[in-house]
Fold this sequence. Notes:
It is a single chain. By secondary structure, this protein is α+β, with helices and mostly antiparallel strands. It folds into two domains: 2-169, Glutaredoxin (3-Layer(aba) Sandwich); 173-214, no CATH class. It has helices at 50-61, 63-68, 81-95, 110-114, 154-170, 192-200, and strands at residues 20-23, 26-29, 38-43, 71-77, 103-105, 129-134, 140-146, 184-185, 205-208, 211-214. A five-stranded mixed β-sheet has the order 5-4-3-6-7. Strands 8-10-9 form a three-stranded antiparallel β-sheet, with no helix packed on it. The termini are far apart. Benzoic acid (BEZ) binds at residues 45-46, 49-52, 126, 148-149.
Amino acid sequence: MENEVMNTMPRIGDMAPDFEAVTTKGKIKFSDFAKDKWIVMFSHPADFTPVCTTEMSGFATRKNEFDELNAELIGLSIDSIHSHLAWVNNVKEKTGVYFNFPIIADIDMKVSKLYGMLQPNESETAAVRAVFFIDPSKKIRLIMYYPLNVGRNMDEIIRVLQALQTSDKYKVAMPLNWKPGEKVIVPPPKNLDEMQERIDGNYDEKIDFYLVKKNL
Ligand code: BEZ
């Protein structure tokens, strides 16, 4: 049907679908938004709800850490701009926390459907708690989906952004529970020469040629 947006599910490695939207910071065209920066785009089910308020406050109070990581925040829910404005103002008045990043008013569900944030078996009217990590080339690099009743973990959201950026910069991989400052994984060998190099090389930690760690 003309103008109908399919409920699509972008995947890791896909280019982030482009869209235009009304936000609490004015209209945006996503392809022009935050050029040369990482983007952390997240949805919440509804304004004026408790879990969402704690999550949005978490993004707001730690925005300086996203700034330091060259990342822009953008929120979304299937609410009107009037609801967003009233909620932002209410939280600021009640707690002093100001949601100082754009929040998309996705009242026609266009962006939610484009990004697979509307998962009808969880809710037909509210977006799930999604987080998309989008790199400066606008490629989707990591996706989180949480249900309506479980809030996300801000430490983990910041940790995976740091992990993606460190992996890109040093061409390494991150082991279980990796945190900045800890050893990273040397990518496993792809040929016999690389295998021999791992066997002979002097690394900070070596279990065998396929599991080698080093400090950065
Ligand atoms: C909440 O944010 O508290 C919430 C929103 C939608 C459904 C359930 C909980």
